[in-house]
Every structure is written in C-alpha cells, then in structure tokens.
Amino acid sequence: MDFGSLVLALSFAAPAVLYGLAALAVPILIHLLFKARKQTVVFSWIHFIRESVVRKSSRLRFQELLLLLLRLAALALIVLAFARPYVKAGPDTPASGPSDLVILLDDSFSMGAADGGRTRFAAAVEKADNEIKQLSRGDRVGILKTTPPFELLGFSDDLAAARGLLRELKPSFASAPYPPALRRAVGLLSESSASRRELVFLSDFQRSSWPGSWAAVADFPANATLRVAPVGAGIVDNLCVVDVTPLTRLQREDDHVRVGVRVANFSLQPFPDLRVEIMADGASIAGKRIDLAPGDIREILFEVPAPPAEQVGQARLHANDVLPIDNVRPFRLTPTTPLRVLCVEDEIADVPYFQSTHFLRTALNPVTERGGRHRSFDARVLSVRELHADELTAVDALVLANVSGVTESQAQDITRFVRSGGGLLVFCGDRTEPALYDVRLYRKGVGPLPARIAGSAGRARGEPPWTLRRPDTSHPVLAAFSGLEAEFARPEFQRIATVTETAEEASTLLFFDDGAPALAIRPFGKGHSALVLTSADTTWTDLPKRAEVYVPLMHQLLRYVAGAEQTQEQASYHPGDALRLPAEAPDTGALKLVGAEGEPRVLSTEEVEDGATLPVALPGVYALTNAEGKPLRRYTVNLDPEESDLTPVVPEERNRLERRGAEQREEIAAAERSLASPATGDRRLWRSALILALVLMLCEVWLAGRLGG
Amino acid sequence: MVSDLLEYLDPRVLSRVENLELVAKFIVEGFMTGLHRSPYHGFSVEFSSYRKYSPGDDLKFIDWRVFGRLDKHYVKQFEETTNLNAHLVLDSSASMDFGENVTKWRYTCFIAAALAFLMLKQRDAVGLSLYRDGRLDLMQPSSKTLRLREVLAVLDRVRPAGRASVGSLLTRVCERIRRRGLIVLVSDFFEDLEAVDSALRFARYRNHEVIAFQVLAEEERSFPYNVQTNFVDSETGDRIVSEPRTVRSDYLRLLEEHNERLREIAESCEIDLVSLTTTDALSEVLTTYLSHRMQRV
Question: Is residue A686 part of a domain?
C-alpha cells in the first residue's frame, strides 16, 4: 500500500481525541508571543556581532522554524497516537475492485414540484444518472424508490439498462415517509460484499417525510458510505386544499348540507384574495374569497344544497403555485338515511314532558341554530303493550326506557332483532323489574342484555349523589369526548340501578364514582345492546339536562348499537392505498372499478375474496359498478396534504444522517478492533506514532540546546 | 615583600586605588623591585665617552673590556638623555568605557600613569594627547616636576565618550608636536584600520617612534554571553538582537582577523604593538617600553 492509499485508509478508534490537535496552537503562540527573555548589554563595538548575525540569521531562522515544526509534529503525533489510528483493512480499504452503488430516489408526489425550471424529480434523475456514469466496468448499481414496493432494480452491472430505467421513471402521487425506504436501501447495501459500497439518497428531503430517518440507518453497514443529495429550492410557494369535510350527519330539514374546506399556505409569503370554490357536476355551487397568511391553515365553511343522491364534488383553490394539482380536492356528498329509533315505555303520559323518553327523543333531533331540526334520527314512541315483531322490522334501534319488563314473546322478538343486527338500548327506572329482565333478556348471559340487573340504590337527602368517573375515550362511543372528559363529572345521580354480574362479552364503558357500572355494552349476534344503569329522564338524574354530555352520548350510543359506526366507510383514500370493497358486494365476477386510471378494471372472484382490497395509484374519483354499469359505491382518492408542505429539513439534519452512517461505521470498526488480538497492525500504529513523537522530542531538545532556547 | 609589590601590578588590585599617582608609583616600583639585577640598569642616561678612572668613581662604571685590552682603567662617561619627547596618545572614545572589573579606559589610565611616572623619573619629557569634549586636548611634552600631576589630573577628569577616531587623533598630534619623539598610542583600535594605517605611516614619516598598546576587555576576547541578548553599541547606540551561542565563533574569528590586520599594519610600519587584556599584569607594558627604550641606547 503506497502512502496515499495509507492516508486514505487511515481511521481512528477514538476520533474525539483529535480535538486535542487544537493544542497545536500552544507552541505556535509560545513561539510568537513568548520568545526567550532578552538581556541588554552595552557592548563596546557591535560591528563584529552584526557581521556574525547577518551571516547566521538565515540559518538561525531556519533552525527556529525547524524547532517549531519539531514541537508541532511531536505534539500532533502524541494526539494521533491517543486517537488510536488504524488502517482499515480488507473491504474497508478503498482499494481497487468493483464497487456497489445503491441509489434511493424519492418519487413522492412532492418531487413533481417545478421549482427552478424543471421538476425536482427530473433533477434527481439527472443526478442519479451522473452517479451511474461515474461507475466503472464491473461496478454494480441498485435502484430503489421511496414509495412501495421500493425496489426498482436489484444489483446489476448492466449500467446502460439502469440508466434507461431511470429515464423512464416518473414521480408518483403517493406520499413517502423515508424510513421504510431507507431500511430497504440499507438492507440491499448489506447484501453487497463489494470492497466499496455506497448509498446515495436523492430527495427534496421534506420535513414531513423525515421523522425516523435517523433511526432507519441504525444498521448501516460498517464499511459503506451514505451520501445525501438534495434537490429543489427549499421552501417555495405552494398552497393546497388540505381536507374537505361534508358534514352529512348534520343534514337538516331545509335540505342544506354544511361542507368544511380546509386550505393551507405552506409558503413564506401571504396570498391575498384567493378564491375557494365548491364544484358539483362541473359547475360552481358556492364560493368565497379569503386571505391566507404564510403558514396559515384555515377552514372555510360552505352551505350547499343537499343532493337527492350521492354526488361527487370538488373543492378548488385558485392559486398560482408550484404544485397546481393539490389545489383541487374531490369529495363525495352522500345523503344519509336517518336512523330509525323505536322508543318503548310502560305507559305513555299525555304530557310529553313526563314521558320517559321525552328527553331522549329531544336529544336525538335537536333544534338547529336556524330553527330547523337535524334529521339524523327518526324516533317515535310506543307503549310496551304495542310492541310486536312487526314494529321491529322497520327500526334500526329499540330503546326500552323505564319499562317494567317484556313478555316472553317480546323478549324472543327482541333477541332475534338484536341478533340480526338491530340495536337495543335499555334504561332503568322506578318501574324496572330486575327479575323480568334477568329471566327474559339476560338469561345468565345468553340473552341480549349486557348485565344482570339486581335492583336499585338511592342516596338520602343530604347525602352526596353519585357522579361518573373520568371515562376512557378509546372506545368509539366515547371517542368524541376526547379532551372533554371533565364534562362527565358534572351529572349527578340520586338513584342508580345495580348489577350483580355482566355477560362474558360485555364491557363497561362508564362507572359511577363508587366503582359501580353505569353503562355496559355487548355485541350480540350482528347487533349490539347497551344497558344504562339510570333513568332516561330526570327522575333519577340530571343527566338529561346536561346537554353537553347527554346529546352527543345518546347520538353516539344509538349509532353504535344500531351498527352505523361500524359500517361507516372510509371517507377518503390516498394514492397507493387499497380501496376497501363493500362487504355485501354481489356477483363478484361482474364488478368493475372505473376511475382516474382509465380502463375499467374487472375484479376477479379471487380479488374480492382475498381481502377485498384494490390498490390505486392515481388521485381522483373511482366508481365501483355492477355488470350493468350501475355505481354501487364511489371512492375519492386524494393527495396526501403532508406532501404539499415542501418545507425541507434543515441541512444539519441531512448532514446528521450522513454522519450517522459514518458513526455507525466507526462504532462497529471500534468494536472489531477491541476484539482484535494485541498483535494487530492497528495497535502497532499508535505505538509507532508514540515512538516517532519521542524521537522528535529528543531532536527538539538537541536543537533547542544548540539555539540556546 | 617583593610579592606584595608585584601584586600591585595586577590591575584588579590597582583598580581599588583611587589615587592615580599612587597607582603609578606602585606599578613602577613594584616592577623595578622585581628586576634586581636588571640589564636595564642605568638606561636613563646615554653613553658619551670614556675617561680615566679616578678614586671615588663607582666601580660599576669601569669598562672591563677596555681594561683587558689596554690594562688601564677607564670608566664610561654618560650624559643625561633629556631629549626624549614621549607623547601619550590615548583613545578616550566611548568604546573604551567597557569591561567587567576594570574598564579599558581605567586600564589605559594605569598604563599612561605608569609610563609618565617612569619617564619623568628618568627626566624624559612627557606629553599627553586625547580627545576631550569633542576637541583635541594636547599637552606638549615637558619634563618638569609638575608634569606628572598635570597628566594625572587630566586622566582623572576625562570620561570616555564619542566615537573612536584614533587615526584622526594621531594625525593631528603628529601635525602639532614640534620635535620628533616617542609616541605611545593606547587604544582598542575598534575602528576602521585603514585610517589607523594612514595615521601610523604619517607618524613614521615624521620620524616618530611609535609604541602601540591594544587594550581589550576580557569579555571582548571571550564573548561569554549565553542567553539571547540585545547588544547596544556604546558609541553609536545601534542595537542588535542576537543569540550569542550561534554567533560566538564568527565573532571571535572576525575579532582575530581584525587583530591580525592590526598586527600587519604595525609590522609594515615598523612599530611595536602590544596586545593587552584588562586582566593582564602591567609589567608587560613597562617591559615593552623599556625594551624599546634600550634599543635606542
């Protein structure tokens, strides 16, 4: 190995010690600032001295410089020795031989941004092409992209083919967090046994895709290098429609629906007087003008006529930026059918206020701000004596409020109703007969009732009433109360029903403050049932008057037991996601998917049966049709707004990734050295440095003696 | 007792004595005591003729070689040598004020005092020339009794200063003195030797005898400095920083070349040159002088 190669192959086990090289400044400072002390002598005639000095001065200066260099060299060698130098051997040595290059190319949607006259992706492809051009015959290249399935080309020595593949590449519309792709790239690099291995990561290094990247290279190979090659101009002007939320659940009697459109300005400059439009069937149906400050994300509310049938609309933001495609976002307007709720009481009082389900029915259809009523629920009341199987066929949920009990046949009808997918909600009250519920609806856990009612308990006047414990909002029924858990501490309960046991599948969602169950639910067949251990009216509790808890709780509870929450379909997909087919899809061989990708895709039986998922790559609206072409369901596939934020990570983070690769390499090398035998050349190297330093110090002493310094 | 007197020839001992006349006496008498049967006895008078011995004459003046040839007693007839004019020409430049224990100027004063004492004791006329306060201070030779006091008074008052110009001084002295005589030149000769050469040749042209004493300090001969030193020229005030260890060899070589050149000049001009160090005993001075004086007898 020649000297140049030796220097290139030189590495250090304790590189931090190299900071000690700063001590080299000390002898220099001493040399400059603290020259030897001078005495002054008035001499008779300095003619001879001057002559001598003139002759000696150049040699003296040389010797002084030599002395300084000796001191510096000795000090530097000591520092280098303590940094434990070693020569990378074997594959570490950048010697001749084939090398393997892995190119990781960011093909996420953001790379389509055209800043600087061309797209970022085109710039990245050109850089990748240059990297390949620098390879020699026998070298291999592997190409990965940041979107699944990541790998485009395994290691290949056909460099021309690799360059051809690069030229054909186009950016995707998918979002791409970097860690998965980095892990795949590191894995591919680890498979290589070439003497030189390198990973080049070409990307715009979006901040939103960055988290976890550092950890993803934790297993970076010890003798490989990692290089990042950024493209793009950093933060550029880009706006987007982040989200469109059709508030269909709040559809009202006046046939209008509220749509929330969130728009964002990801640039560093304000965009005044922007127009935001709602389009339906190619025509504008609503529009507003807004100002967007830098970094601002705003939601603009529109009220549009409720469509009689499912309709596809678009939210459009008129702005001139680098990614126009994310300024348009399709969405679906789907009219909802109100949930049919049958409220059953023992006796229906003439005055509605005294009816047990009066508060419940009022809560299900609250008055809107404009005086209209929401039509999310269609509730009616019935006496328990009139409850027949026929009544249950036309409802989604059955509510038993302060009903003393049901007959055996009614119990069987209710059981069938719940098992077939209906919802059952039971409130307790003064009239409730625990024994009847036990034998007809609980039946030791095999009936639809979640728990066995034991009786009731009350607090005397003057005693503190029951309250509710802080709820666990992880359950879908209570998810809407996340962050609002404190609201549950307000309702007071003077009387509660008690339970002695719960069904095996039952779960308790709410507890009173003494630990007694307050709300228990259970799945039963295809349906669900819920048992509320207090009254539906104000006879036992003031809960019905606590609208902030009661209204959303009843809405969520009834939607849950009626199965509406479970069948809620995914509102929007992103490119790269897999569409979920409806569970009730008929005639599997005849289904077609029509959408942005052009040609309809006929779905095979296997496709539907094997998980019923359909990956889509392009944004837009897709329709699932039957053999006659009748749309069964529409899907909206939208760009991930994370990709619209083109803000890159700070350069220090990128550099840190490169350093991470280097540090990992050093750590492994150090560990290997610590396991090496004492006879390895690495150890001799630092000894040699120390010996050389000693020799230089002896020379320094000799020369200093000659100079009188 | 003799050794005590000889001790007074050590300039380090003499330097403790303030009175220059006393110093001169110590030097000369110490020197003479050490001579005993010195061949230089009776040199102060010059031989003139023979005359017949008559009772009462000192037997030491009988010329025994004549008695051997003629079998008659003759005694040598001597005349007092009152025609020797000695000029003490002293370098009083600032470079002479240098030396660790005894400065070169002080040593020069010892030489001048001793020679003046000795010369006047032998009734020679003594003159003194030196630069004082930038102008020539010339004292014409005289053998009068007070001359010693006058010479010593001048030496006491003079403080070395100014730049060396021995050549110029010697030339001007030669121009001013009326009779030929003996010029005793005392200097370190730290100056341009070509000017000195010209002045000496001029002195010889005027038929003056010249004895030159080169006085150097021990430090100038050994250059004993070790640490880095800022040397200040005593005459010009010029400064130079030097590492003495690195320049010592060159310095000594240059000094030797300078002295060698001075010796060549002295030889070519047929003058006596005595190189002294301020630590040297002053007997060398007197020996040289007397040796030179004997050649004239």
Answer: no
Which domains does chain B possess?
A: 6-33+82-296 (3.40.50.410), 45-80 (no CATH)
Q: Structurally, how many domains does chain A consist of?
A: 4
Q: How far is CA A603 from CA A200, A592, A623, B45, B192, in A?
A: 40, 6, 13, 155, 119
Closest-CA distance of chain A to residue B203, Å: 26
Structure-block tokens of residue A655: 């550099």
Residue in chain A closest to B95 (alpha carbons) equals A44
Residuewise pLDDT in 10s, chain B (297 residues) = 334 444 445 666 666 666 666 666 767 766 665 554 333 343 444 455 566 777 777 777 777 777 777 777 777 655 444 457 889 999 999 999 998 888 999 899 988 888 888 888 877 889 999 887 668 888 888 888 788 889 888 888 888 988 878 888 899 888 888 788 889 999 999 988 999 999 999 998 888 888 899 999 999 999 998 887 888 998 888 888 887 887 888 899 999 999 999 999 999 988 888 888 998 887 777 777 777 666 554
Q: Do A45 and B255 touch (CB under 8 A)?
A: no
Helical pair A120-133 and A159-168, crossing angle rounded to 10 deg: 180
Residues A190 and A280 in one domain: no
**Would an 8 Å CB–CB cutoff place A54 in contact with chain B?**
no
Query: For chain A, what percentages of helix, strand and coil (3-state, to nearest 5) are there?
Result: 35, 30, 35
Contact at CB, A44 and B238, closer than 8 angstroms: no
Report CB contact under 8 Å: B231, A48: no
Name A699's Cβ contacts closer than 8 Å, sequence gap at least 6.
Answer: A70
On the 0-12 / 13-18 / 19+ scale of CB atoms within 10 A, A251 is: buried
A655 in the same domain as A631 = no
Say yes or no: A344 and A483 in one domain: yes
**Number of inter-chain CB pairs under 8 A, A vs B:** 96
Supply the ipTM of this predicted assembly: 0.78
B240: nearest CB among A39, A42, A53: A53
Shortest Cα–Cα distance, B256 to chain A (Å)? 10
Write the single-letter amino acid at A416: R
Same domain, A614 and A499: no
A36 CB within 8 Å of a chain B CB: yes
Domain that holds residue A408: 340-561
Of B217, B246, B255, Cβ closest to residue A48:
B255
Same domain, A317 and A390: no
Give residue A389's Cα distance to chain centre: 48
Q: Identify which of A41, A51, A55 has the shortest CB distance to residue B232.
A: A41
Most A CBs within 10 Å: which of B221, B232, B251, as the mutation test of the A interface?
B251
Residues of B in contact with A44 (CB under 8 A): 95-96, 98, 104, 188, 190, 217, 220, 234-235
Q: By the CB < 8 Å criterion, does A49 face chain B?
A: yes
Top-ranked range on mean pLDDT: pick from A327-341, A342-356, A602-616, B10-24: A342-356
Asked if residue A570 lies in contact with residue A585, where contact means CB atoms within 8 angstroms, the answer is no
Residues A313 and A217 occupy one common structural domain: no
